[in-house]
Design goal:
The complex is a heterodimer of chains A (about 550) and B (about 70). Chain A is mostly helical. Chain A is built from 24 helices and four strands. In chain A, the strands form two sheets. Chain A has a two-stranded antiparallel sheet with strand order 1-2. Chain B has about 70 residues and is mainly alpha-helical. The longest helix of chain B is centred in the last third of the chain and has 23 residues. Classes of the chains: A mainly alpha (about 550), B mainly alpha (about 70). Chain B: This is DUF3311 domain-containing protein.
C-alpha cells in the first residue's frame, strides 16, 4: 500500500466513526422532552465538568485556529502568536463573568445574548439589533471553518466542491437531529485525535533537531524576506497593534453567541469555574500548534497553490508517518465541523428567540421554537457553504475579519451590561450603530499590502489601521472606543433630559443564582409577557431539586 | 445571596493571569530559551500554567460560597 492510501484509509475510517457517533448522539442521555429549544440548543443545561470542557475546547479552539494560527506564524512570525495570550486571558475572565451570565440566563431561561439585552435594558429593539449583529458575525465564522476543512480535504486528495458539500450535509443532519449533543459528543472524539496529533508533532520536532533548530531555521528565513515586520520577535512598532488585537479578540469571544451557548449548557456555576481553571490546557495546545508554523517554515514546507491554510496539512503529509497523518487529518476535519455545528445552533437560537418570537410569531410554543431553530441551523450552514463556493475563499476570511469587528460593538450591551445597567437603551443602540459604521468604513479604507509594502488591493486589506509612523492599531478597538464614547455621551444627555429608560427585568441576585434555585423562571412573565412557565411543565424539572 | 466580602476579595487575584500575558513589550526577547523555545513563546505557556494555578486557588478559597 502506498503512503497516501494508508493516510486516506485511516482518515476515511475515522470519519465514518465520527458520523456514526454524531447520529447516535441524540440518544446520549436522552431527555424526557426532546422537542424544546432548551434540550436541542443547550442540551437541557445538564452538562457536567468533562462534557463542558470538551465542548468548549471543541467550539472555541476550532480548525480555523489550528490551521490559521500556524499559517500566520509561518507567514509573519511573532505577530501570529497573538492567539495564545488572547486564549490565556479569556480563562480568568470566564471565571469571573461567565458565571454571572450563566446565573442570569439560568434564572430567566435565556439562551442568547440578545434575550439578555432585551431584559436588562427593557428594549426588544436593542435585543433584535444584538441578534442581527450576532448572526451576521457568525455566518462568516462558520464559513472560515469550512474553508479550513476544504484545505484539509484538498491535501488529502478530495479536492473540489462535492467532498465539502457532503461533509456539510452530514454534519447538518447530525445537528438537526441531535442539537448540541452531537458536537458535545464529537468534541471528546476530536480531543483524543488532537492529543495524538500534538504528540506526533512534538516527537516530529524532536526528531528533526528540536525547537532550537526550528526557531533558528525560521529566523534565517525571516531575515531573508523584505518584510520588516516579520521575525521571531515583534518589531518595536508592533506592540500597539499586537496588544489591541489581543484585547479585541478577548472581548469578541465574550460577545459571540456560540461561546456563550457552550457555557449555558453547564449544569451549575461550579462547572463553569472548574472549567475556567482547566481551559488553559487548550492554550498550551494552541501554543504548540502556533510554534509548528516555525517548524514548517524552517523545514521549507510549501503551501499548495500559495494558500497558507494548507501549510499545516502539507507539513503533516510530509513529516508524519502515514497512519498518524490520517489521524491528524481526521482531528482537523472534526475540529472544523464541531464549531460549524455549535455556531449554527447559536445563530439559529438567536434568530428564534430574539427575532422570530418577538416579531414574527409571539405565541410560538417550545416545540415550534425548536423546529424553527432546527431549520434555521440548516440555512446557516448551507448559507456559509454557499458563501465560500460562490465567492473566493480568501474573501470569506475577510468577512470573518469584519465579523470580529462587528461583534465587538455589542460589548457595551452584553458584557458591560452584566456589571451595570447605567447605560440608556437608546444610547446603546446609537453607540452600536456608530461603532458598526466606523468599523466597517475603516476596514473598507484599509489597503492590502504585500510583503514589501506595496498596495495590492485598495479595500478590506486587513484589520490593522496604520498610524503612519509604522505603528498600527486593531480596527475593532478603535470602533469600540467610538461606540463607548457615543454610548456614554448619549446616556448623559438622555438622563439630563429625563427620558425614561427601559425597565430592568433582572435583579442583582439573579447574577449569583445557582442550580437548585427555587426562583428559577420566576420572572418569565415580566420579560415578554408570555405565560411560558404554565405552558411547559417540563421546565420545572430543570430546577434539580 | 452575595458571598462574604472576605472571599470576594480573593477574586482580585484573577487580575494577575489576565494582565500577565499583556506584558509582551517586556517579554519580547529570545534569551533565555527553554528547550530551545525563545522566551517570547514560552512566556505565554508559563502564563497559561499561572492561570491554571491562580484560578484553581481562587475557586478553592471561595468554593463554600457556591453552595448558597
Amino acid at each position: 500500500m502506498s503512503e497516501r492510501t494508508i493516510e486516506v484509509g485511516v482518515f476515511v475510517a475515522l470519519m465514518a466513526v465520527v458520523v456514526l457517533a454524531g447520529f447516535g448522539a441524540a440518544r446520549w442521555r436522552a431527555p424526557d422532552n426532546p422537542h424544546t429549544l432548551e434540550e436541542w440548543g443547550v442540551g437541557g443545561r445538564a452538562f457536567g465538568n468533562w462534557t463542558i470542557w470538551f465542548l468548549l475546547g471543541g467550539s472555541m479552539y476550532s480548525a480555523y485556529t489550528f490551521i490559521a494560527v500556524p499559517a500566520l506564524t509561518y507567514g509573519v512570525g511573532a505577530i501570529g502568536y497573538f492567539a495564545v495570550p488572547f486564549a490565556v486571558i479569556t480563562t480568568p475572565i470566564t471565571f469571573a463573568f461567565t458565571t454571572k451570565a450563566w446565573s442570569v440566563a439560568r434564572r430567566h431561561g435565556f439562551l442568547t445574548h440578545s434575550e439578555f439585552a432585551t431584559a436588562r435594558f427593557g428594549s426588544p429593539g436593542l435585543g433584535a439589533l444584538v441578534a442581527v449583529t450576532g448572526i451576521l458575525a457568525t455566518i462568516p465564522y462558520v464559513a472560515v471553518q469550512l474553508v479550513s476543512l476544504q484545505a484539509v480535504l484538498r491535501t488529502v486528495g478530495f479536492g473540489g466542491e462535492w467532498p465539502l458539500l457532503a461533509a456539510v450535509t452530514v454534519v447538518s443532519i447530525c445537528t438537526f437531529r441531535s442539537g448540541l449533543r452531537a458536537p458535545a459528543l464529537l468534541s471528546i472524539v476530536k480531543d483524543v485525535l488532537l492529543a495524538w496529533m500534538l504528540l506526533t508533532a512534538v516527537l516530529m520536532v524532536a526528531m528533526y533537531g528540536g525547537w532550537d533548530s526550528a526557531f533558528d531555521g525560521a529566523a534565517t528565513r525571516f531575515a531573508a524576506t523584505p518584510n520588516p515586520a516579520d521575525g521571531l520577535l515583534l518589531p518595536d512598532t508592533g506592540h500597539l497593534g499586537f496588544l489591541t488585537l489581543v484585547i479585541g479578540s478577548v472581548l469578541a469571544i465574550f460577545a459571540y453567541p456560540h461561546a456563550l451557548l457552550g457555557m449555558l449548557a453547564a449544569k451549575d456555576r461550579a462547572t463553569i469555574r472548574r472549567n475556567a481553571a482547566a481551559l488553559p490546557v487548550y492554550c498550551i495546545a494552541l501554543a504548540i500548534m502556533a510554534m509548528l508554523g516555525f517548524f514548517a517554515l524552517a523545514r521549507g514546507v510549501r503551501p499548495a497553490d500559495g494558500d497558507l491554510n494548507t501549510v499545516v496539512p502539507q507539513m503533516i503529509h510530509e513529516f508524519f508517518p502515514p497512519w498518524s497523518a490520517g489521524i491528524a487529518y481526521a482531528a482537523l476535519s472534526v475540529a472544523a465541523l464541531i464549531p460549524a455545528s455549535v455556531m449554527s445552533i447559536a445563530a439559529a437560537t438567536t434568530f428564534t428567540r430574539s427575532l422570530y418570537r418577538p416579531y414574527l410569531r409571539p405565541h410560538a410554543t417550545q416545540a415550534t421554537e425548536a423546529k424553527v431553530s432546527r431549520w434555521v441551523s440548516l440555512i446557516v450552514k448551507f448559507g456559509a457553504a454557499a458563501l465560500i463556493l460562490a465567492v473566493d475563499p480568501a474573501f470569506s476570511v475577510d468577512l470573518q475579519l469584519i465579523g470580529g469587528v462587528v461583534i465587538l460593538q455589542t460589548i457595551p450591551t452584553v458584557f458591560l451590561g452584566l456589571m451595570t445597567r447605567w447605560f440608556h437603551r437608546a444610547a446603546l443602540i446609537s453607540g452600536l450603530i456608530t461603532g458598526l459604521a466606523v468599523g466597517v468604513v475603516m476596514l473598507y479604507l484599509t489597503p492590502r499590502l504585500d510583503g514589501a509594502g506595496r498596495t495590492v488591493a485598495e479595500h478590506f486589506g486587513g484589520s490593522s489601521w496604520s498610524l503612519g509612523d509604522g505603528r498600527s492599531i486593531y480596527v475593532g478597538i478603535v470602533a469600540l472606543a467610538v461606540n463607548l464614547a457615543v454610548t456614554v455621551v448619549v446616556t448623559l444627555v438622555l438622563r439630563a433630559a429625563k427620558v425614561p429608560s427601559g425597565a430592568d427585568a433582572t435583579r442583582p441576585d439573579d447574577y449569583l443564582a445557582d442550580a437548585g434555585d427555587p426562583y428559577l423562571q420566576r420572572l418569565d412573565q415580566l420579560i415578554d409577557g408570555l405565560p411560558r412557565a404554565d405552558e411547559h411543565p417540563g421546565r420545572q424539572r430543570e430546577g434539580v431539586r | 445571596m452575595p458571598a462574604p466580602a472576605r472571599s470576594r476579595r480573593w477574586q482580585w487575584l484573577l487580575v494577575v493571569p489576565a494582565a500577565a500575558p499583556l506584558l509582551t513589550p517586556y517579554a519580547n526577547r529570545i534569551e533565555p530559551r527553554v528547550a530551545g523555545v525563545p522566551f517570547f513563546f514560552w512566556y505565554q505557556i508559563a502564563c497559561a500554567l499561572l492561570a491554571m494555578v491562580v484560578i484553581t486557588f481562587v475557586h478553592l478559597v471561595s468554593r463554600e460560597d457556591d453552595h448558597e
